[in-house]
Amino acid sequence: MKQKPTLSLGIALLPVLVLVLLLSVNVGIYGDDALSGSNQFILLLGGAVAALVGFRQNISYKEMLTQVAENLKSVTGAILILLFVGALAGTWLLSGIIPAMIYYGLQILHPTYFLAACIIICALISIATGSSWTTSATVGIALIGIGKAMGMPVGMIAGAVISGAYFGDKMSPLSDTTNLAPAMAGGELFAHIRYMSLTTVPTILVTLLVFLVIGFTQQPESVMQTESLLSAITARFNINPLLFLAPVIVVVMIAKKTPPLVALLIGTLLGVLFALFFQQPLLTLLANQDMSWSGTYKVVMDAITVSTTIETSNPLLNDLFQSGGMAGMLGTIWLIICAMVFGGIMDAIGALEAISAALLRWAKSTFQLFASTVASCLAINITASDQYLSIVVPGKMFDKAYKDRGLAPENLSRTLEDSGTVTSVLVPWNTCGAYQSGVLGVSVAEYFVYAIFNWLSPFTTLLFAAIGYKIKQLKS
């Protein structure tokens, strides 16, 4: 490929500005449904605008397509991991592992420690499911009801629920944003999670401490029992502490730096074995009383590849007890592919290089580079109104700038999550803010101050950058 042309900053930013404008309009029209496909097409339109700029700079179609292919090649591992994440989620639901986490988590509740317990419960469930949205829409609603019965302000309860849910979402290998961030930064999933824990764990500990103090100032009026939730779980699943062996084994494998695909495959197979051993009645029910080998096989394979829905007597749990399997990850994979098309063309025409050069001219220090990344993520959350785009667009824009400064991709992926993923819920017109507000029945203004983990996370990552603590360098 011939040398890329030198673009002015204004021309280089033109495709980005058009992209952000189109995404803002699209999200405004489609709302929560924008991720079903329309945002992905907008990314392709952004790539088309970038291609027009490239044609004016005498960059050929073949050169741009070659760079797109290179970009797609770089995310092959991330796409495979996403597919295995979907498979793992399906078998862990079928085996009762996720329901067991919910069952034991709900029993932590105590009036004085209720708010802290909300964080812990939502964190556990969100780690297990990889979804802050599902956590809020199920157990989050139940916790809002319990807290209201205790006479606690709903904004306070919602803040605790959201803080815990987004902590789990960030730290879960099942989360699409947790997979998306390292994919955009060119990093590896479990390395990203380990590195992100350096800022995320202190932030959640501060959040827990604040809510513990708040809890001691509250005077609960009454306690709503959670027996209906617990009985609904035990009526459908065989809950046994031995189910925790599977996640423990996977966590140990991750800690031992086992390749992600290997760890996820073994976790999926353990889920299948535990389902066959612990949940025979459930398998028979899902197979429509077909107790043959083929009936069980179809139930297990559907959980891995397509979908699983397990109904209980409690409607709050029904939305939680469903998984899209590998097929459920295709939306995120589609988004990654379209983002790679946009990023590949931007790279081929020299736009990313021009933007990176401008950022590096301004960012005289590592802190300024981190600060500009945080500002970009916040700006896209406000303008484009979508947490995924706050990861995708800055991720592609800043990738080269971090590499040129000799910083490992984990720095970028962590900053994307610390400032993009978690702050989306603080913007009322963002899809996340609108969703959480509607589901929990609490306005963003009411829970904003109490969503401590969410607004504190960007400050934590900037603090680490300012003092130069644990800033990982590229290996020479």
Write a structural description.
By secondary structure, the protein is mainly alpha-helical. Helices cover 73% and strands 1% of the residues. It has helices spanning 9-30, 38-56, 61-74, 76-94, 97-106, 114-129, 132-149, 154-171, 176-185, 189-217, 227-236, 245-255, 260-278, 280-286, 293-305, 315-318, 330-348, 351-362, 366-383, 387-404, 409-421, 431-440, 444-447, 452-467, and strands at 308-309, 322-323. Strands 1-2 form a two-stranded antiparallel sheet. Helix 1 runs antiparallel to helix 2 (38-56). The two termini are 25 Å apart.
Computed CA radius of gyration, to the nearest angstrom: 23 Å
Counting helices, strands and paired strands, the structural category is mainly alpha
N- to C-terminal separation? 25 Å
Helix content: over 70%
Report the portion of residues in β strands.
under 5%
Shape: globular
How do the strands and helices of this protein lay out in sequence?
Blueprint: H1 9-30, H2 38-56, H3 61-74, H4 76-94, H5 97-106, H6 114-129, H7 132-149, H8 154-171, H9 176-185, H10 189-217, H11 227-236, H12 245-255, H13 260-278, H14 280-286, H15 293-305, E1 308-309, H16 315-318, E2 322-323, H17 330-348, H18 351-362, H19 366-383, H20 387-404, H21 409-421, H22 431-440, H23 444-447, H24 452-467
Antiparallel strand pairs: 1-2
Helix pairs in contact: 1-2, 1-18, 2-17, 3-17, 4-13, 4-15, 5-6, 5-11, 6-7, 6-8, 6-10, 7-8, 7-22, 8-10, 9-17, 9-20, 9-21, 10-21, 10-24, 12-13, 17-20, 18-20, 19-20, 19-21, 19-24, 20-21, 21-24
